[in-house]
Amino acid sequence: MVKKFTRKEIVADLKEKVKRREPIIIGGAGIGLVAKIADRAGIDLIMAYNTGPFRMDGHPSCIGYLAYGDSNGITLGLAKQILPVVRNTPVIAGIGAADPYRDIDMLIDQMMGMGFSGITNVPTAGAYDGRFRLRIDTAGVGYPEEIKLIEKCSKKEIFTVAYAYTPDEVKAMIQAGVDVIGAHVGATSGGTCGFEQTYSMEEACERTQEMFEMAIRENPEIIFTCHGGPFEGPREVQECFNRTGVHGFIGASSIERLPLERAIMETVREFKSLHLGGKA
């Protein structure tokens, strides 16, 4: 049976870790095996949303923000793959908040009824900017719908994580009642399909700290994490920890895609370096 966690349980556990100065590590999982191993390794939260399967199929995460699949349908499918193999970790479902074909209140209840322990705003319109971002926001299918999603969940006493790209988005999400902020500084670099033109480490840390300071002003008790851009591995994330006040890290490519790429590459090369014996 799927183990569910309440909002109160999750928040209490995370805040205790913050108090002990232990970094909170949250990871995306696009297949059951990744979720299973991350769970066994002691990850704090597992995120299940539509970009994961695209990553595991060898494509950039940004494919999940284009019209190449039913994002909420993909997450519903992930429930069958991920929830049965996770024993000890809350699993958080991503909801595309502006889905024109679903009642979002019913979808929230459906996700929670399947065994998820919380909700996040993925895919997020925060990934867009410029004229297109203005167009979708003013059309009622953009980031404001994600703020409403978090507010709905908060009123239902459902644990939430929200990605935000700007201090204003951080402020809005905290006012909506979010439990954890993920400060997003763009697509993650590295590997075979990582984003090449990311912010520098200095720029990414400055943007993250700017969002962190807004968050603390709004709610000194908020749990705040970093994500994306040049924060691709433990060394880079440690640099962010050193330069900012964040409490932890959300990794998607960093938890599932990049480790798999490196491990498979190394293993295949090791096998290819073997020598056959002398017997015919």
TrEMBL record:
Keyword terms of this UniProt record: Hydrolase
Single GO MF annotation: hydrolase activity
InterPro entries in UniProt: Aldolase_TIM, Pyrv/PenolPyrv_kinase-like_dom, TIM-br_IGPS-like, Tobamovirus_resist_UPF0261
Protein name, entry field: Phosphoenolpyruvate hydrolase family protein
Superkingdom of this protein's organism: Bacteria
Organism field: Yanshouia hominis
Boundaries of every TIM-barrel domain copy: 9-274
Species lineage: Bacteria, Bacillati, Bacillota, Clostridia, Eubacteriales
SUPFAM superfamilies, alphabetized: Phosphoenolpyruvate/pyruvate domain
